[in-house]
Amino acid sequence: MTVRFKAALNPGGGCTVDIGTETRGVVSGARAGGTPRRPDRTRATIVLKPEQERLIEAYASASTQGSLALRVRCAAPPAPTGSVSESDLQFVDFVLSVARAEGEKDPRPMKSDQLHAIVGRETSILFSFNVPLEPDVDGAKRYRREKLEVALTPLLVSGGRVQIALHVEGEMATVAADSAPVLHPIEHAETLVVAPGEQREVDIDVRSSDPGEGWERVR
Predict the structure, then answer these.
(1) Which of 31, 42, 171, 194 lies in the 20 to 30 Å Cα band around 88?
(2) Are the CB atoms for 72 and 17 separated by under 8 Å?
(3) How far apart are CA 178 and CA 40, in angstroms?
(4) Whole-number pLDDT of residue 84
(5) Whole-angstrom distance, CA of residue 135 vs CA of residue 141
(6) How confident is the model at residue 157 (pLDDT cuts 50, 70, 90)?
(7) Is residue 179 part of a domain?
(8) In terms of domains, do 106 and 41 share one?
(9) Distance between CA atoms of residues 127 and 146, nearest Å
(10) Alpha-carbon distances of 202 from 30, 107, 146, 217, rounded to whole Å
(11) Per-residue pLDDT at 178 exceeds 50
């Protein structure tokens, strides 16, 4: 299981926590080289009062009836035990923008957000869009569901430049009322070296497996 937390202190006290989990499993006795099972994903946002604690279910198994839960508590950070103080930490700010291009058209901006990270620690954000499609051959309504989770980890600051580990994960799915969604998983990882104020572009190309889905290519 991979768990990602994004926490913020509320002005009146307490915490707002975004929690995302991804659980990958295997079926006992399954043949080697078979198609891997799709991971189970959950996402929740909770608001906690100071010193409040809650259990958040992260995974439930349909085959074993077992489940896993996360115990989340909002409390003041523990007193530092080493010599590292907040002034010793290095912070990096990002402006992350997503743009979409249909087919061979030029990309059009969709959304921008600011992210704040400590060197050596990951920060992430989820972009989600629904795009209407033309009805299928039977006239049924459908749309394309787009999800992109972008994780950035500043690894090193040297010579005024930042080394960043970038990981993008998500999917594009054609969703129709009368059939199962057609899924197109997205996974991309690379390491970037960026100077302050420098803009870098990462191009992700997704193509449909069937022209009948109502779209062919999205970047």
Answers:
(1) 194
(2) yes
(3) 23
(4) 45
(5) 5
(6) confident
(7) yes
(8) no
(9) 8
(10) 37, 12, 17, 16
(11) yes
